[in-house]
Amino acid sequence: MDTPTLPPECMEMILRYLWDDPSTLGQLSLCSHNLFNLIIPILYKSPFRLIADHRTWTDDSKTERTAQLIRLLYACSVADTATSESRSSKTNNSSSANPTSSTSADEALFKGPAHWPELPSPLTTDYLFHYTHQGQIPRIFRAFQILTPSLERQYRGRIAYELALAHATTALTLALFAHSPSRIQTLSMTAHQLGCILFDEPGQGISWKEGVGLGSLRMLRRLELDITAMHTLTSWRNARRGNVGAGAGAEGREWRSNQNPTSEVDFPLMFIQEHQRLFRQSITDHINSSASTRTSAPLPPPVLQELVIRGSNREWTPTQLLSQIEPLEVVDLSAWNGVVPRLDRIPQQRLKSLRTNLARRLDFVEVPLTYLRQCSQLEEIWMPTLEAGTFRWAIDLQRSIGDHVGEARLRRRRYQVPQSAAVQDQGQEIINQEDEENPISTSAGENNHSFETSLDLLPTPPLTKVRLYGGPRDLVPSLEDALDAFRDNIEEISGSEDGYSGRDEYPRMQITWSVPNLSCLDLRGRFVFFFDLRGLRHCPGLRTLRLQIESNIAAPYRRRGNVDVNDDSQDIQDAQDGEDPVWMTGRDYTVLAEMSRLEELELKGTSWNIDNHILQTLGGFRLPDLILDEMEENARNGGPKQYRPTPLAGSLKYFGITEAHKPDRAGLVPFVATMSKLKVISLAKKYTYAVQTLQEEAGPRLFVECTSS
């Protein structure tokens, strides 16, 4: 497809929405029109990405700018003639029933707040098509919501407002879908908006015809559903009655469900069930293969395979929807702010990604371990930890976990560690006591044993991404078990704590075995656990490391009697004595300096104690204030010390130490100069005085941001 000509008046407005440096726009406006049209498509090829990636604009500012850009592109776009006529006829029909909805829709799309600039005259290029693609549609609909906040205050009736909003949304939807409706793969809508697609008009039948309503979404794979307040609208109550009459025509299809959609809560289920019934994967091949066999072949999976549910509702839960549709590959409940009862009712046959809300307390959601073990195709899981042995069942106990492993870790692999007679007797006593308190029949015991045996025969899920949330006693063992059980496949692992623990209860996280494919490690918490930095040597592919722990990252020393021990020789001696050397591991930053693939490093927490010397270790440069000391040392040693950039200096792109207050300009300036690929450095607010100096030293490649911790 040829790049369309971009009139300067439209591009100048796009620049106004995207760039906060007036001098840039001023310089570009001095170019000739031909040069302007040649440069702008290159510089601003993806304006939505420029807005999303801007590091100084707030989220509210990004949302407003996105909405302004959508408004501009929609106004400058020329819709298809047939689509325009169809839209105008629908608007006229709806206006006869509700004359205010048409005006409200236009105001929602074009008027905007008073401080927004005037729109240009309609142009000749479809800019909405030129600048948008399938991945932008969810963001477009979320941004569009801020264009309509004033409509609710303009009318007394709630229905008038909702119909106006529905028509405004439908107008934008048609503008997007008119390009290639059969290729839409992602859709983000509310339940009410799904009703607008299901039914051409309130009281009419479901739009099942190809190219109309639901029939135009043949390639829809991902549905992002926003469940806000549900409303029972009078205008929808006759939808079922009207559909019965409409479904008898044309090809004789009609809504096959017995539900009467008297509330918006029915629309998502109706939409998904009907879409899964109409559109299957490789449907042509399936029909051909079925025709050649006497027995009917199983239906291929539906095209719609991913569902995201946001919001909250007291009378509705995601389980009610998910348990009544065909199995999905992706179920995302990370933005659902409510309970999810009976999560095990979600079909798991095709499930590859399951995300639950980790921002809530543990009693909001529970993922039963028996259900988790049945998800044989699961690749990604976000869940709260229910116990310390969340992933113990998946560990291959025949595989080594390395040397110098702590006793706590060995105890968790209890099948490999011989227990003393006292421990065995105590364990048997507990089992006998439980049997007396909970007597069960022989048949029930056999059934439980049979069920456990069937679980053991299932393949271990090929998990590659794990994100856990929980208290320190359960979180750290579960993180270690996940790294142990899925060591060959795991790519990303994250853990965030909930709750506090006494100092003597701090777990200590270790990685003493090879995790070759781990690329992202993200640990967040306050006063939770120790972390052994030397374990990162077993993660050669690490690209992102975020350790946002408030304190006690590792014990810097241990006391042997009345003596504080803190040197490598004693560490070796501890290993020879059979003691746990992890007690000796301090903040060994040389491990980080040796990582040649690490691109993002974020260290938050007061106990990191980042200073000039640590920056020198990470970068491998000479500090100016050490020159005199080194001259004296060189005189004693007979030669100068050689400084070379570390492997980290050639790979690091983002460095965040927003809670460090010890480095000064003398350490930061050579650091940014040595880190040749560093693009962003995030510092505490106090370093605003050094921003200009750092940018001058590193050049235009570096962006310095100073934020409050």
End-to-end C-alpha gap: 48 Å
Report the total helices: 26
**Which strand order does the major sheet show?**
1-2-3-4-5-6-7-8-10-12-15-16-17-18
Please tell me the overall pLDDT.
69
Helical percentage: 25-40%
Largest sheet: 14 strands, parallel
Give me the secondary-structure topology.
Layout lengths: L7 H11 L3 H8 L3 H11 L3 H7 L5 H17 L5 H17 L1 H13 L15 H5 L5 H8 L13 H20 L8 E5 H8 L23 E6 L11 H8 L19 H13 L4 H9 L14 E6 L6 H5 L7 E7 L16 E3 L13 H6 L5 E5 L22 H6 L8 H17 L4 H16 L7 E6 L1 H14 L6 E6 L10 E2 L10 E6 L4 E2 L12 E6 L8 E3 L2 E3 L2 H9 L13 H4 L6 E5 L7 H8 L7 H11 L16 E3 L8 H10 L5 E5 L6 H8 L4 E5 L2
Parallel strand pairs: 1-2, 2-3, 3-4, 4-5, 5-6, 6-7, 7-8, 8-10, 9-11, 10-12, 12-15, 15-16, 16-17, 17-18
Antiparallel strand pairs: 13-14
Helix pairs in contact: 1-5, 4-5, 5-9, 6-7, 7-10, 10-11, 11-13, 23-25, 25-26
